[in-house]
From TrEMBL:
<dbReference type="InterPro" id="IPR039763">
    <property type="entry name" value="ARMT1"/>
</dbReference>
<dbReference type="Pfam" id="PF01937">
    <property type="entry name" value="ARMT1-like_dom"/>
</dbReference>
<keyword id="KW-0489">Methyltransferase</keyword>
<dbReference type="GO" id="GO:0005634">
    <property type="term" value="C:nucleus"/>
</dbReference>
<keyword id="KW-0479">Metal-binding</keyword>
<dbReference type="GO" id="GO:0016791">
    <property type="term" value="F:phosphatase activity"/>
</dbReference>
<dbReference type="GO" id="GO:0046872">
    <property type="term" value="F:metal ion binding"/>
</dbReference>
<dbReference type="GO" id="GO:0032259">
    <property type="term" value="P:methylation"/>
</dbReference>
<comment type="similarity">
    <text>Belongs to the damage-control phosphatase family. Sugar phosphate phosphatase III subfamily.</text>
</comment>
<dbReference type="GO" id="GO:0051998">
    <property type="term" value="F:protein carboxyl O-methyltransferase activity"/>
</dbReference>
<keyword id="KW-0464">Manganese</keyword>
<feature type="domain" description="Damage-control phosphatase ARMT1-like metal-binding">
    <location>
        <begin position="6"/>
        <end position="404"/>
    </location>
</feature>
<keyword id="KW-0808">Transferase</keyword>
<comment type="function">
    <text>Metal-dependent phosphatase that shows phosphatase activity against several substrates, including fructose-1-phosphate and fructose-6-phosphate. Its preference for fructose-1-phosphate, a strong glycating agent that causes DNA damage rather than a canonical yeast metabolite, suggests a damage-control function in hexose phosphate metabolism. Has also been shown to have O-methyltransferase activity that methylates glutamate residues of target proteins to form gamma-glutamyl methyl ester residues. Possibly methylates PCNA, suggesting it is involved in the DNA damage response.</text>
</comment>
<protein>
    <recommendedName>
        <fullName>Sugar phosphate phosphatase</fullName>
        <ecNumber>2.1.1.-</ecNumber>
        <ecNumber>3.1.3.-</ecNumber>
    </recommendedName>
</protein>
<keyword id="KW-0949">S-adenosyl-L-methionine</keyword>
<keyword id="KW-0533">Nickel</keyword>
């Protein structure tokens, strides 16, 4: 399965890159922290080399030994996996659910640094995220320019034109999800070309296209909107870099077109899946845009910083997003987060990992309804914007998946296909 290939080849490659990154920063650690920094780097590398060996030799998963706030939840989850195995031995790297194993690896990478001050705040994936952003400059400029031009006459757009613009920016945000560094084991893949030019050619690759439903929901919410009842959209973020910029453009459009009054962003509280957005990445991206020597890029950065200051944009992180649990257990494991999401008019889940957690990462029949696969996770109406990079997919028309699979065996993992898949949560 694709899971086997990931655990056998991709995860060790990612660990090797992390070890290499720490090696390369040895002098920097020494300059900043003296011998303590170098000692911490050695200990972290030793921890990660041991982790890589455990993975490659299919050792059992071990409980976390750190004092971080989520450790108890992780260890309870390991017990849950042990119970699932019905006495067939300990859960190990190749004998456990892929989603769990992959999340567990990233949590252990985090522990390797968290255990080793003074380098405990070092993000081993930061360079790759920054490189992705800089390599995508042309696409970022094209998108910011398009958006700033659009704003000049946004007030004059009729409903049909507003709808067209929303659909365009939803698609840019959808295809922005292709720039995923964990998918390429950290090899650079950035958005080089103008993302708006190819949208028409890409529509046929959207296997489930519920954009009309999103439009209806937002328009209806806007009509019922009162001061006491503002329209709130939440975006559960995926990758930093170009994808994040495409999400920010979409979020600002929702505000300026009056389709939403507030946008809440949800990022990761620790470095995760190589390129996922943390609070640092979010703030860094705004700073880079502000200081860019391109008028429309810096205009976007300044306006977006303003949105945060005015409180019409709110950034959150919650440790639930970096637990191994699928979202159907959120109400039980993170009732505070679930209650917060219930206040939203629309939840937009970006990317493949969120889709896997929405659907429990199971081997569903392709035609199983999305609503069913969500397994009672319905805090609010929700939509997944996702390019397919793992082999789970639901909500297709009967025969649709089989038909594509007949000519393209890799269709579920190539990132070529996408979904804009909505569930009304009723």
């Amino acid at each position: 399965s694709f899971a086997y290939f990931t655990v056998k080849d991709r995860l060790p490659q990612i660990l090797t890159r992390v070890i290499d990154t720490l090696h390369r920063h040895k002098n920097e650690f020494f300059e900043e922290h003296g011998e303590k920094g170098v000692e911490a780097e050695k200990r972290a590398i030793s921890f990660l080399s041991k982790l890589r060996n455990e993975l490659q030799t299919d050792k059992p998963m071990t409980p976390l030994e750190d004092e971080l706030p989520d450790a108890a939840l992780w260890n309870q989850y390991l017990d849950y996996q042990r119970n699932l195995s019905n006495g067939n031995g300990e859960p190990s790297w190749f004998q456990s659910p892929w989603l769990y194993v992959e999340c567990y690896m990233y949590r252990r990478i985090h522990a390797a640094l968290a255990h080793n001050p003074p380098i405990d705040n070092f993000d081993v994936f930061k360079e790759g995220k920054a490189q992705n952003f800089f390599e995508s400059q042309e696409a970022v400029i094209a998108l910011c320019t398009y958006f700033q031009e659009l704003l000049k006459n946004i007030k004059d757009l009729d409903e049909k034109q507003l709808q067209e613009e929303l659909f365009k920016l939803l698609q840019v945000s959808l295809w922005g999800n292709k720039c995923d560094l964990s998918f390429s084991a950290g090899e650079g893949i950035s958005q080089k070309s103008n993302p708006l030019q190819s949208l028409e050619n890409m529509v046929s690759y959207i296997l489930v296209n519920d954009m009309e439903k999103l439009w209806s929901l937002l328009v209806n919410a806007k009509e019922r909107n009162t001061e006491k009842n503002p329209v709130r959209v939440d975006i559960i973020l995926d990758n930093a870099g170009f994808e994040l910029v495409s999400d920010l453009v979409l979020a600002d459009f929702l505000l300026l077109s009056k389709l939403a009054d507030k946008v809440h962003f949800h990022g990761k509280s620790i470095p995760w899946f190589v390129s996922d957005t943390t609070k640092h990445d979010f703030n860094w991206t705004l700073k880079q845009l502000q200081s860019a020597n391109h008028m429309w890029m810096s205009r976007c950065g300044t306006n977006w910083e303003g949105n945060l200051k005015k409180g019409v944009w709110v950034y959150h992180d919650h440790m639930f997003w970096t637990l191994p649990h699928d979202f159907s257990s959120m109400a039980e494991v993170a009732p505070d987060l679930y209650a917060d999401l219930q206040k939203s008019n629309l939840l937009l889940f970006k990317g493949d990992l969120n889709y896997r957690k929405l659907t429990g990462d199971r081997k569903w029949e392709y035609s199983v309804p999305f609503h069913q696969a969500l397994n009672r996770f319905h805090p609010a109406p929700l939509c997944s914007l996702r390019t397919l990079k793992s082999d789970t997919q639901v909500g297709l028309k009967p025969g649709q998946g089989e038909q594509i699979g007949a000519s393209e065996p890799e269709w579920m993992i190539s990132g070529k296909y996408g979904v804009v898949q909505f569930d009304a949560a009723l």
